[in-house]
Every structure is written in structure tokens, then in C-alpha cells.
């Protein structure tokens, strides 16, 4: 198979090449796949894409014109793919449904702990020879109520860590996970997540029903001073509403690994550029906001698993073995 790997970074090249062992011919392109770059897919059987590639209907039609047979996503989420067009164009869409739920769950916990104990501020302070403690006061995680929205693989791993801390864990998911029901976590109505939680963490996919699930109405029902963590997808949060709530002190802490408008910024070094995104710039002014650039998945174990499952999907196409492909259907 000839594979065009888009949005590729040195770490993608290293992990995919190590697993591929020259079985398939891989070409690594740094740019995102979008309407301008889709032409690069000419002559390839597979395009291998990541979270911020654009797989809209026009892009997929161009891929079909170039006889691309598979979109092999290197991620779990597929909200960036027009599945209706992929189906109409006869292009298979494959994903990596699970690589390391622990990677993302542990990063969500890292954000929560850093915000709580102000580690981001303390680190800068100590480097300035300032060992004062004012402004660094935290709270015990033990005994706090954590609301978890989405209890699939990552949500479950997150709940298990928080249960270990002695937190009370309330969850909401329209499809309860039997594994979670074996734990001390409890399913509650969504309204109770809003009203009872000291910390809310988002682990559901971005769907029409979950877009802006955090909005002025849901924020209004939340406890003043709560902590909100989003390692899932940026558009789960109405950023403008969250900024208003931060300005009023209603949201006490915000930890983000994903951002609604991240596509043009994240995964790149823009340090020499002017930041034109005024909402992201405003978020960065709050001392109680901690933002990472979509790195929750970024562990050795996860990158190896992503490469292995991506190659498994591509081998399924090469060997005409649909059962070996983690296919995404409409
Ligand atoms: P999963 O499919 O195992 O679980 C998702 C859960 O969300 C399911 O149980 C589903 O029933 C539930 N859900 C669906 N609609 C819901 C709703 N309206 N309210 C509450 N729950 C709802 O997925 P996962 O592997 O646990 O991943 C969760 C999300 O994490 C992914 O969709 C992706 O957006 C995100 N993610 C982020 C990173 C990162 O690096 N930041 C990495 C991987 C995944």
C-alpha cells in the first residue's frame, strides 16, 4: 500500500516507521490534510490523518477522484470526518478506538492537581527565588465530589484514579458502562452533575448533542468556584460563556487540553507569531487557567499503540480482511 501520512511530526514518523518495517510505502507530509493539500493524496491508497485534518465532503471527493481507498485515522475521535460523503465515495474510514485510555485520564488528573495546588505558579515562583505561599492555597481532593461526563474507556480510567483519591464520583452517560457499575462511582442525572460537583471532567465525544454541553445555562447551575477539566474536544465548551464565568469568579479553575479553535494553532510552534485568537489570549490571562496543547494522548505507550493499530487497519485493507479493520460507520 502507498500511504500518505498527513500532519506528521518526527514522533509519528518514528513510531509508524518502527511498526511498518518497510511493509508499506509511507510518505510523510507535515501539512494538515485540507482542501488545499488534498491534491497531495494523488497516487496513494491510504491517507493517514490526525485530529485537526479536515475530512470534509469536498476533501473526500478529491480523495475519491485520486482513488484513495481508506482514511486511516491515528485517533479515536472522528468528528472531523464527513462520514456520509466517505460512504457515498466508497472510502473506508478506520480509527484507533483505544490506545491508552490511561494516558488521557492521567493527563486530566495532572491538570486537576496542578490547578488545585497551583503548581504552574509555584514552579515559576521558585525559579524567581520566591518561596512565599500566598495565592497557592489548595484543597484536599479526598472527599470532594467529582462529576464525570462520558464513562467510556477514558472516563472509566479517570473515575478509578479519582476513587483512589477518596473522591465521591458521580457520572453521566446515556449508555452506562457495566465496568463502571462494578466500582463505587454512581450514575446520576446530568442536572446533578451540574449542581453537586466540585470538579467536572469531560470524557464524552463531540457530537451534535454534546457540542457546547458547557454553556451559560449549565454553568449557571454549577457550584461557584468549581473546577472544569476538558481533555476531550474543544467544542464541548462554549468558550465565550466560560470566559464570562471566569471573569465573575463562578468557575474557580479551568484545565484545558483541547480548545474549540485549536486547529490552526495546536501541535505547532507559533512562538514567533502574533496570537490573533482573542479568546485564547483572554484565557491565558487568568491565573486559574491551565492550558496544554492537545498532549493528553502523548505517551510512549499511546504512540506505540496508535502506530500498531493504524498499521493493523491498513493491513486489513491490504489483505481484504474487513474484520481486522476498526471501521467507523455513519
Ligand atoms: P469512548 O467511546 O470509549 O467513550 C465515550 C463515552 O461517551 C461513551 O460511553 C458514550 O456513551 C459517552 N457519551 C456519548 N454521548 C454522551 C453524552 N451526550 N453525554 C455523556 N456521555 C456521552 O471514548 P474514549 O476513548 O473514552 O474517548 C473519549 C473522548 O476523549 C474522545 O471522543 C475524544 O474526543 C477524546 N480524546 C482526547 C484525547 C486527547 O489527547 N486530548 C485523546 C483521545 C481521546
Q: Which key terms come to mind for this protein?
A:
330 residues, alpha/beta, Rossmann fold, 2 domains, five-stranded parallel beta sheet, binds nicotinamide-adenine-dinucleotide
Produce the secondary structure layout:
Layout: E1 2-5, H1 10-20, E2 25-28, E3 46-49, H2 57-65, E4 70-73, H3 83-89, E5 92-94, H4 101-116, H5 119-127, E6 145-149, H6 153-164, E7 168-172, H7 178-181, E8 186-187, H8 190-196, E9 199-202, H9 216-221, E10 226-230, H10 239-247, E11 251-256, H11 278-283, E12 289-291, H12 300-318
Parallel strand pairs: 1-2, 1-3, 3-4, 4-5, 6-7, 6-9, 7-8, 9-10, 10-11, 11-12
Helix pairs in contact: 1-12, 2-3, 4-6
The protein binds nicotinamide-adenine-dinucleotide.
Residues 76-77, 98, 101, 104, 149-155, 172-175, 177, 203-207, 209-210, 231-233, 257-258, 294, 296-297 line the site of nicotinamide-adenine-dinucleotide.
For the largest sheet, list the strands in their spatial order: 8-7-6-9-10-11-12
Written as H for each helix and E for each strand, in order along the chain, the element string is EHEEHEHEHHEHEHEHEHEHEHEH
Largest sheet: 7 strands, parallel
Low-confidence segments, ≥5 residues, pLDDT <50? none
Explain the overall architecture.
Belongs to the D-isomer specific 2-hydroxyacid dehydrogenase family. This is D-lactate dehydrogenase. Residues 3-322 form the D-isomer specific 2-hydroxyacid dehydrogenase catalytic domain. One of its GO terms (molecular function) is D-lactate dehydrogenase (NAD+) activity. Helix 9 links the parallel strand 9 and strand 10. The protein contains 12 helices and 12 strands. The protein is α/β, with parallel strands linked by helices and 330 residues long. The protein has helices at residues 10-20, 57-65, 83-89, 101-116, 119-127, 153-164, 178-181, 190-196, 216-221, 239-247, 278-283, 300-318, and strands at 2-5, 25-28, 46-49, 70-73, 92-94, 145-149, 168-172, 186-187, 199-202, 226-230, 251-256, 289-291. The strands form 2 sheets. The chain has a 7-stranded parallel sheet, with helices on both faces. Strands 2-1-3-4-5 form a 5-stranded parallel sheet, with helices on both faces. The protein folds into 2 domains: 2-99 and 300-324, Rossmann fold; 101-291, Rossmann fold. Bound molecules: nicotinamide-adenine-dinucleotide (NAD). Nicotinamide-adenine-dinucleotide binds at residues 76-77, 98, 101, 104, 149-155, 172-175, 177, 203-207, 209-210, 231-233, 257-258, 294, 296-297.
Amino acid at each position: 500500500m502507498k500511504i500518505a501520512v498527513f500532519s506528521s511530526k518526527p514522533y509519528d514518523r518514528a513510531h509508524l516507521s518502527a511498526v511498518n518495517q518497510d511493509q508499506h510505502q509511507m510518505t510523510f507530509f507535515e501539512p494538515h490534510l485540507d482542501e488545499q493539500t488534498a491534491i497531495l493524496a494523488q497516487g496513494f491508497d491510504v491517507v493517514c490523518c490526525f485530529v485537526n485534518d479536515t475530512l470534509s465532503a469536498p476533501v473526500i471527493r478529491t480523495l475519491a477522484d485520486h482513488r484513495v481507498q481508506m482514511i486511516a485515522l491515528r485517533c479515536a475521535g472522528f468528528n472531523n470526518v464527513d462520514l456520509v460523503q466517505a460512504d457515498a465515495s466508497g472510502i473506508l474510514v478506520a480509527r484507533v478506538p483505544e490506545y491508552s485510555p490511561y494516558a488521557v485520564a492521567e493527563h486530566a488528573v495532572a491538570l486537576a492537581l496542578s490547578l488545585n495546588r497551583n503548581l504552574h505558579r509555584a514552579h515559576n515562583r521558585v525559579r524567581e527565588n520566591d518561596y512565599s505561599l500566598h495565592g497557592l492555597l489548595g484543597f484536599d481532593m479526598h472527599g470532594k465530589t467529582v462529576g464525570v461526563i462520558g464513562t467510556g474507556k477514558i472516563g472509566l480510567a479517570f473515575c478509578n484514579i479519582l476513587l483512589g483519591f477518596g473522591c465521591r464520583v458521580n457520572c453521566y452517560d446515556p449508555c452506562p458502562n457495566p465496568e463502571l457499575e462494578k466500582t463505587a462511582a454512581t450514575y446520576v442525572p446530568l442536572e446533578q452533575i451540574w449542581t453537586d460537583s466540585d470538579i467536572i471532567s469531560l470524557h464524552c465525544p463531540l457530537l451534535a448533542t454534546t457540542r457546547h454541553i458547557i454553556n451559560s445555562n449549565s454553568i449557571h447551575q454549577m457550584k461557584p468556584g468549581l473546577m472544569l477539566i476538558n481533555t476531550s474536544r474543544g467544542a464541548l465548551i462554549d468558550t465565550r460563556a466560560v470566559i464570562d464565568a471566569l471573569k465573575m469568579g463562578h468557575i474557580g479553575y479551568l484545565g484545558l487540553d483541547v480548545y474549540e479553535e485549536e486547529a490552526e494553532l495546536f501541535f505547532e510552534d507559533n512562538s514567533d507569531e502574533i496570537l490573533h485568537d482573542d479568546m485564547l489570549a483572554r484565557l491565558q490571562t487568568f491565573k486559574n487557567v491551565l492550558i496544554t496543547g492537545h498532549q493528553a494522548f502523548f505517551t510512549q505507550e499511546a504512540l506505540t499503540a496508535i502506530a500498531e493499530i493504524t498499521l493493523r487497519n491498513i493491513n486489513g485493507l491490504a489483505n481484504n480482511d474487513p474484520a481486522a479493520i476498526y471501521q467507523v460507520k455513519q
